[in-house]
Design goal:
Structural class: alpha+beta
CATH architecture of the largest domain: 3-Layer(aba) Sandwich
CATH class of the largest domain: Alpha Beta
Strand order of the largest sheet: 1-7-8-9-2-3-15-14-13
Order of helices and strands: HHHEHEEEEEEEEHHHHEHEEEEEEEEH
Radius of gyration: 21 Å
Number of domains: 2
Largest sheet: 9 strands, antiparallel
């Protein structure tokens, strides 16, 4: 092992002795390194080649798995199978009722096959990291009878260099597009009113060089409504009680993971608001919520309404919609729920 990796492993081992239940991400934060760097010191972690489309296509052979995508404030876990996988130059798709992903390979930096030991045994995983070494997607094997397929994936994509230090990007992260201090608000709102699809909203922001939270402030009272930061909990409880199917979008910066369906078991533990259903888990740090907005976007199918949640740095941490498909109007039950939340949860 590289000498620098050896010293990092010793520091991590010492930390684990002191805090045996410390998660690897929290250990990385304490040691002021990236999670990918810590993973690379594990004796049984195997670095994989940077063939993103190839790796994701091979994951289909693993059958029933758990897909995990997280950011600093939310963890999104969905069980199912990877199907209908496709890649073009900029975006990859996994389109299945259970595992539903948007993948941005330009953000990816590293991948590892990682056995994760816990009190119940060993979880075999494939873990993806961005160029900064931050975890952006993890896949956990759920059926051990798929171990041969997992080992075949490792054999096919094993990186020829298992020893060198990772080349972690250290430059300051920048936004995906330039933001301008000057915005023609009337023109922006007029074009918002002419939207035909929810996917047209991001290009609209980019065109006017305006970030999302500023856009919501500009549109407040017309297309956007600031609500209390307890609204997410209230929405999940009411959606559960009334069996309103929801879509839950969480982005890690490199992957957007989407759950579509009903939510049932809603439980709070300390600062965490949780959905604890058999096939879907969501873990949201409520103390990270700085802004909550109900947002309306015109489409060819009528108004589509979302609940959008932001942290103190104006990062979107999770977005909720009612379940819908293109060509189908928004669910009346979701529309009614959003209307009820608007009237009950106006931010002061």
């Amino acid at each position: 092992m590289n000498p620098s990796k050896t010293s990092l492993k010793k520091a991590w081992d010492a930390l684990k002795e002191q805090f045996p239940k410390l998660r690897i991400k929290d250990a990385a934060d304490r040691l002021d390194v990236s999670e990918a760097e810590l993973v690379s010191t594990q004796k049984d972690a195997i670095r994989l080649q940077e063939d993103w489309s190839g790796l994701f296509s091979e994951v289909e052979q693993l059958g029933y798995v758990m897909a995990l995508t997280r950011n600093e404030s939310v963890v999104h876990e969905r069980k199912g199978e990877y199907h209908n996988i496709s890649f073009n130059k900029h975006v990859g798709l996994v389109l299945d009722p259970d595992i539903d992903l948007r993948i941005f390979p330009g953000k990816f930096g590293f991948a590892f096959a990682v056995p994760v030991k816990n009190s119940r045994g060993t979880l075999y995983s494939v873990q993806f990291f961005d160029k900064y070494g931050t975890a952006i997607h993890k896949i956990y094997l759920m059926n051990e009878d798929k171990l041969p397929a997992y080992n075949a994936l490792i054999s096919k994509f094993k990186h020829p260099d298992q020893n060198s230090l990772l080349k972690i990007e250290t430059a300051e992260r920048t936004g995906d597009y330039e933001v301008s201090p000057e915005v023609n608000e009337n023109s922006f709102l007029n074009e918002w009113a002419e939207l035909k699809d929810t996917h047209d909203f991001y290009p609209l922001l980019k065109k006017f060089k305006v970030d999302r939270t500023r856009a919501l402030k500009i549109a407040e009272g017309r297309f956007s409504y600031k609500v209390d930061n307890s609204t997410t909990e209230l929405m999940l409880l009411k959606a559960s009680e009334n069996e309103v199917p929801v879509m839950v979008f969480v982005s890690s910066g490199g992957v957007i993971q989407i759950h579509s369906g009903k939510v049932s078991k809603i439980k709070k533990m300390d600062n965490w608001l949780n959905v604890l259903d058999p096939e879907f888990n969501l873990h949201l740090r409520e103390d990270h919520i700085a802004q909550s907005w109900i947002v309306e976007k015109p489409t060819e199918d009528g108004i589509v309404t979302s609940l959008e949640i932001f942290d103190k740095d104006n990062n979107n941490i999770v977005t909720f919609f009612g379940v819908r498909k293109p060509g189908i109007p928004e669910l009346e039950s979701w529309k009614d729920l959003m209307s009820e939340l608007r009237s009950e949860s106006v931010a002061v």
